[in-house]
Every structure is written in structure tokens, then in C-alpha cells.
Amino acid sequence: MGQPREDREVIAAEPHAAASVSAISRGARCPVGGQEGPTTVVSSDQIVQERAALRRVAALVARATPPERVFAAVAAEIGHLLGSDLVGISRYDPDDTAAAVGSWSRHGDGLPFPLGTWVPLGGHNAVTLVFETGRPARIDTAADASGRPADHARKKGFRAVVGVPIHVEGRLWGVVMVIALTARPFPPDTEDRLAGFTALMATAIANTQARWELRRFAEGEAALRRVATLVARATPPQEVFTAVATEAGRLLTVDFTVLGRYEPTGAATYVAAWTSTDRPFPVGVRVEPGGRNIHTLVFESGRSARIDDYGATTSGSAAHIGREWGFHAAVGMPISVEGRLWGCVSVASMRDEPLPPDTEVRLAGFTELVATAIAKAEAQEALTASRARIVTAADTARRRIERDLHDSTQQRLVSLALRLRTAQLAVPPGADELDRQLDEVVGGLADAVDELREIARGIHPAMLAQGGLHPALKALARRSAIPVRLDLLTRERYPEPIEIAAYSCVCEALTNAAKHARATVADVHLASRDGLLHITVRDDGHGGADPRRGSGLIGLTDRVEALGGHLSLRSPSGAGTTVHLTLPLTTGTGPPHTPVIDPSDQGPGPVDP
After folding, report:
1. pTM of the model
2. What is the per-residue pLDDT for 554?
3. Which end of the chain is more exposed for a tag (fewer CB within 10 A), N or C?
């Protein structure tokens, strides 16, 4: 008769378990520690029980049950199957210790190894021998054992102990031990019977580690993606810094994240921070260079740095802050922008253990995003400054042209007109034709002066420089080809670039309304609130304006954005056009928010030359 199908599947999936059961069922000599032991004959009921136990554990593994539940189930199955008094499962840690991850007691009066407890390795005992050799080990009497694990065993009344290694993906991960409280040694086939369970535990551990690493990778990618989205949107660097501190701190499960910006001397200013504690970490604090601390080590080497015992091995002002906040371990990574060291991002933990060895690698993704955000912000600042310089140069040229027209060309035309009038007085009686021709020339010169005056106003209106935006817009409305309704809620003076940009926008919008939109009336609204100057020009024309078809609004948009402002256009077909402009009042130089007296409200006012 063949085996039940489900038995064959489990055994085929677990070759170590299959070998163990097969050997026992044949009554073979089972190898113990590399040597043959006496023949052990196991009844068919015991074989069935062992297969059932393995099948139950395999089902837990197949369902991706958490390891702690698998360990508890394995310990119980082993204890019942092998008739031991106690079962313990421990994990080997990098610091040469063994930590309890699962245990079972036949008498239910306390576990041999409470979960989370650990013991240093060393001496002659089962857990240390397995660690040192990677092979099964047994201690038949307590008198044969030594070391801290043996001391613990004697206190608990342990006698015979058999330990079998748990290998996960080719490396020694831990040990499973069966323990007797009597002097009777375990049968010689105990190691082989344990082998099937260790293979199942190894599978459960490998599966869990794979899921954990995948989840860890996905969480890291999600955190980086959220920060990358901010960078792609050209979010201000300070918001990116804050987001990086928060995301890195939560992802790495540390207690603190700090971003510092270096000065040329090595001093650092904290520009962003995150903490899992209830106290806000100080931002804006400046720490001096020197000593042994993360910020100084990174600045001096330009490379990553770590300190595993912060309280005992650090010095300097940055270390003083760290000790005040209870840092125990810390890691720092440099932030390099286009080949130059810009700052440092560091994480710290208050736990009494070093940060994981992959902390630097996981932080590197965040430092690259910070560097990208800084580079983009600096490029944007450089572009804005360049555009502002171009606008300033253009305004300076316009003022020079307007001054030259006024002081040279216009005055020369006026002088010629006066000389012609003087010459006309000397025309002899009867020379009517000459007198008429002189009149025409003088009139032509007067018209030329008027046209030149209008050109000068368009280049840089004298009224804007003398009285500010309020009177200049009123003068512009009076000269408009269509009626203009003004709603000017402010009379303050603003920095010259702001006034020029606002005036140019209104002038362009009114020109387009009269020339292209065939509007019959236009409304101009001017207001100042929340640190911004708001200008709206609305007409009742046929709409459908497209700034891409002309250079006027494109040029104005460049001017406005160079000042940190924003220009928007709404022009649905058949529903008029609305141009809205916002300008920050802190841009440029000059006397912002200076009340003025409108010359147009004080009589005729000065006459443009």
C-alpha cells in the first residue's frame, strides 16, 4: 500500500524530514554527531505521529504564519513527540549571544527560556557547541557542562540536552534543543528526528525574512517616492528638508533625524529635525565645529560616519546636544550638491545598541533627493536673479531713452519751433505763402513734440516716477481709447520694479482690449493685502485671447515672474478677458508702502515735457 497523498507531498517538500522518517521506519542505524548509534526501532504509531506533527508544522509554514507562532508550535510538537521535559529554540546574534525565540514545558510551570532573554556564549554546553561547530551537539550530564549557559541550566535543573542547528540559506541561524530533567540520556536518533523540524523552521524563517525585506524595500521606496514628488514639484527646500527628516526617521525607526547645513568653517546650522519624543528638537541652532561628533566627522572626511556609543566617546558642541537628548548611537551621511559638501543628515537612537549596518545605505537615497532639491532651488534662484537683472537693465535703458528724448530730442524740436516762430515775425508784408508754409512747419514740429511725448510716456512715464502707481494709472485711463472704470484701493508707493510691472500690465491689457478685443469698457482693480499687490483688468470684448500668439503678455509674464509674482489670463470666447496679476511687495528696493499725494487731485499738476 502506498502512503496517503498528503503525506507524500509533505515528505517530498521536506527532504530532511523524509530521510528521518524513512530511516526510523526501516529500523536503521541513525547517525549521531557523525557516528553510528545503536539500532532504534520505532513503531508504526510513532511514525504516523511524527508525520502528522511535521504536516501540522508544514501547514503553518505554508500559510505564512509569523515565525514566533511557528516556533511555539514546533517546540510543542517536538516536546510531545520526543517525550522531552523542555524544548528551547534560540537565535544566534552577532554579539556572540543566543536569544530565546520559542520554548515549551511539559509541566506548564514556566518556560525554560522566556522569550527575549539572552545568554552569552562560551564554555562547554550544547548551545555553544552548536554555534562553534555548526553541527548537532549533546550534553548527557550537567557535570559535563561549563559556561554561562551551563550555569543557567544547572539553576533550572537541566540534565541531558541535545541541540541541533537551524541553517537558513546556508548560514547558521540558531539552535533547537530538547532538555530532560532526569539523568536519562536522549535516544541516539534524537538528532535525526529533530532534523525535519529544523528544516521546516528554516523555511519559515527564510519566508519571513523575504517578506520582511520586501516590505522594508517597499516602505523605503514609498518614502523616497513621496519626497521625490515634492522635489519634482519644485517645493521650497525647507519643506523638502522637513519631509526628509520625518520620512527618514519613521522609515529607519530611529528617535531623531537632523539636517544640518555647513558653513565654510565647518559650523553647522540645524535646518530641519524630527523626533519620536514629545519634545520639539531645536531647529535653527548653530553648532561649532570640533571634537568627535557626527557633524564634525562628516565635515572633515566628506564621508559617512557612525558612533555606536555616543555618551562615552563623543565631544564638542554637537555631542553636547546629543547627550542632552539621550543619543546612544548615531549615523550621519554627507549631502553633496554638484560636487561640494553642503550639509549632513544624521539619525540617532536612544536604544542601547548600534544602529543597523545598512543605515548608511538607506539614508543615501534621502541625501540624493535633498541634494537634487537644493540644486533645483539654487538653479531657480540663479534664474530668477538673472531675469531680475535683465528686467532691471531693460528698465534702466528705458529710463535713459526717455531722459534722452526729453533732454535732447524733444528740447531740440521745441527750440527749432521757437526759432521758426521768431523767423516768421521777420516775414515781410505780402509774403503770405511763406508765412503759411512757416505755420505748417511750426505746426508739424508741435505735432512731432506731442508724438514724442506719447512715445516717452510709453517707454517710462514720468508720472509713474514722480507720483507712483495711483496717479500714473489715472493718467493712463484718461488717455485710453475706451472708457476705463478705476477701482484703486491703495495710494501707497511700492518698490520701483513693482510699480513698473503693474503699470506695464495695465497698459498692455488696455491696449489689447481696445485694439484686438473690440471692447467698449474696461475695469481696473488695484488692492494690497497679505503682503501682495493685486491688479485685475477686465474688459467686455469678444474674448478668445491667446498669449502664445503675441509677445506682449509673454514679456509681461517674464517680468512678473522675475519679481516672484504671478500673471494669469482668463479669456473665454465671447465673454471678455480678465488679466490678474499678483506681485510680492518685498521684492526689489525702494520705499514700500509710502503714502503719496496724487498730483492729479491737486489741480492740473505738472505738464509732461
Report:
1. 0.48
2. 73
3. N
